[in-house]
Design a protein that fits this description.
about 30% strand, Rossmann fold, alpha/beta, Elongation Factor Tu (Ef-tu), domain 3, 17 strands, 3 domains, SH3 type barrels, single chain
């Protein structure tokens, strides 16, 4: 039987390199692709050692040559600008906290790359993500599942995958631990075997979001008022984009009690602070919800819900008010999640299976 052609996204890191190795070892005809997403000078990065940089492309090319398959670089910077960076800036300016890695997966890796792959005659794409894909023989649906290595599991940032995409995607590392991946890279003599992972957003390499947004827009974030939960002015803030929900440090306000950011209002340019006990909620509302493991449920479903990447899951009940709008009620009060972040639901019985996920739009305070 002839093996299918596969286009593999290669950032230059060890994960996608080892994923390519396994695919080729299994007889697939691989084409390596590095997506050029930005120029370092555009993001103010001093180092070239960031995701999808020229150095990353060089490392990916080296691995492809060593294994023996072609490698190309495609310029996706315009799409990345419009679909990821511009949205990131817009969301922050409107008081929300976006997750650009999810948008990059959604609009670049599993949209633009799919288009390129089909044009190149490839049946499938592959990435170095730590997750598993499995077909449910009873329902006929493709399932997105947690990786074997739960410390590296990335199913949370892949919740947007459609049935069509899941049917034509490989995650070769889903059944491996990171330590095993590095050992394979070393044994194959890959140049990036010990390359460290970036913990920052790729286009904000030092994690200074506010500075990046002001440099990008050419606008200074306007100072405004800190309010308490009763709407009383208790101080001055330095600009809405400098604060995130749940933040305690760096508020620049002197009070006897510890205060946290509870909410932000871009219309009034105010930031509401509270003590920790007022930062809890039991009900979250999500939109743009993608249901994976089943058709849209017509009745309440018991789930395990995650509102932050690699956070502990919590028991909850989910109700679909429309096919893409879900209300999630937790059994126990939770520290409030930030609007703009993702909530991902895992099935109760099959706890490694992603039921679906969406974008948090509001929390109902206790």
């Amino acid at each position: 039987m002839t093996k299918r052609n596969v286009m593999i996204a290669m950032s230059g890191g060890v994960d996608s390199s080892v994923a390519a190795h396994f695919l080729c070892e299994d007889g697939y005809a691989c084409i390596g692709v590095t997506m050029k997403l930005f120029d370092n000078e555009d993001i103010g990065a001093e180092s070239d050692d960031v995701c999808c940089s020229l150095a990353g492309a060089s490392d990916a090319r080296s691995v492809a040559a060593r294994i023996g398959f072609p490698h190309y670089v495609f310029n996706f910077s315009r799409d990345f600008d419009e679909r990821v960076i511009d949205k990131f800036v817009r969301e922050y300016e409107n008081g929300r906290t976006p997750n650009p890695c999810i948008d990059c997966n959604r609009f670049l890796k599993f949209d633009k790359l799919f288009q390129i792959a089909r044009q190149a005659g490839c049946d499938c794409i592959a990435t170095g993500h730590y997750a598993l894909i499995e077909r449910d023989e009873d329902s006929g649906r493709y399932l997105l599942k947690k990786a074997l290595d739960r410390t590296k599991d990335q199913s949370y940032v892949l919740y947007m995958l459609t049935q069509e995409q899941l049917a034509h995607t490989f995650f070769p590392l889903g059944g491996l631990r990171k330590s095993e991946v590095r050992r394979v890279a070393e044994s194959r003599g890959f140049v990036n075997a010990q390359k460290q992972e970036s913990q920052d957003i790729c286009f904000v390499p030092e994690g200074r979001y506010a500075d990046f947004i002001e440099r990008r827009t050419g606008r200074k974030s306007e100072p405004g008022y800190f309010l308490d939960i009763f709407g009383r002015v208790i101080g001055r803030h330095k600009g809405l984009i400098r604060y995130t929900i749940g933040q305690r440090r760096g508020l620049g306000i002197s009070r006897q009690e510890k205060l946290f950011v509870r909410s932000k209002d871009p219309l009034d340019n105010t930031v509401t602070l509270c003590e920790q006990e007022s930062l809890y909620s039991k009900v979250l509302f999500a939109e743009d919800f993608n249901t994976i493991s089943r058709e849209t449920p017509g009745e309440p479903v018991r789930v395990r819900a995650m509102t932050r990447y690699r956070q502990k899951e919590h028991l909850a009940t989910a109700v679909w008010t429309t096919p893409d709008c879900v209300t999630v009620t937790f059994d126990e009060p939770q520290l409030s999640a930030a609007p703009g972040q993702a909530i991902v639901l895992y099935e109760l019985e099959r706890e490694d299976v992603v039921l679906g996920g969406g974008t948090i739009v509001r929390a109902e305070w206790l």
